[in-house]
Amino acid sequence: SRMLRELDAADEARMAEVADATAAWARAEAGAGRFAGWVAEADGEPVGALTAGVVQMPPGYRVVDGRHAYLFGMFVVPEWRRRGVASALVRLAVEWAEREGIGLVTLQASHEGAMLYRTMGFEPGPQMRLYTRHAFSEDDTGCA
C-alpha cells in the first residue's frame, strides 16, 4: 500500500480490495509456478520488493512458446533508493526467468526507473494503454 500511496492512490477501500485480490491471485499463480517475488532487507527490515508473473502471449519469432516474465510492483523505500536495491532485485528476477526457460522479461517503467532498466539491457519502447469503462476511476460512484 505504501507504493500505491506514493502513486497517489487515495481510495483506501480500493487499495484494500486490490491487496486482497493480489494476494489471492499470487497464491494461485505461485501454486501453478507462474509467480515469484523478492524482498530486499536491511537490518531485518524490508527496504524493497519486486514481483513477477508469467504472462502467456501468442508464439513469436524470438519467443516461440510465448511465455513472458512480467515484472511489476517494484518498490524501494525512499531512503534506500539509488543504493543498488532495485538493480539487485531486477537481477534476481531475470535470473529466475532464465532458470524457468522464459525468453522475454517485460515491465512498465516509471519515469524514474526507466534509466535503470536501460542500463540493465532493457530496450526502451512505448506501452500504450486504453482503459475500458470497466476500469476503476477516482470519479467512480460505484454505480454501473
Protein described:
With 144 residues, the chain is an alpha+beta fold. It is built from 4 helices and 4 strands; from the N terminus they run H-H-E-E-E-H-E-H. The protein is globular and about 45 Å long. The mean pLDDT is 87.
Keywords:
alpha+beta, four-stranded mixed beta sheet, 24% strand, 144 residues, 32% helix, single chain
Task: Estimate the global geometry from the Cα principal axes.
Answer: globular
End-to-end C-alpha gap: 26 Å
Which regions have little confidence, pLDDT < 50, spanning 5+ residues?
none
- Multimerization status: single chain
**Tally of helical runs:** 4
Q: How large is the radius of gyration?
A: 16 Å
Helix content: 25-40%
Secondary structure: elements and pairs:
Elements: H1 2-6, H2 12-31, E1 35-42, E2 45-56, E3 67-76, H3 85-99, E4 104-107, H4 114-119
Parallel strand pairs: 3-4
Antiparallel strand pairs: 1-2, 2-3
TL;DR?
The protein has 144 residues and is of the alpha+beta class. It is built from 4 helices and 4 strands; from the N terminus they run H-H-E-E-E-H-E-H.
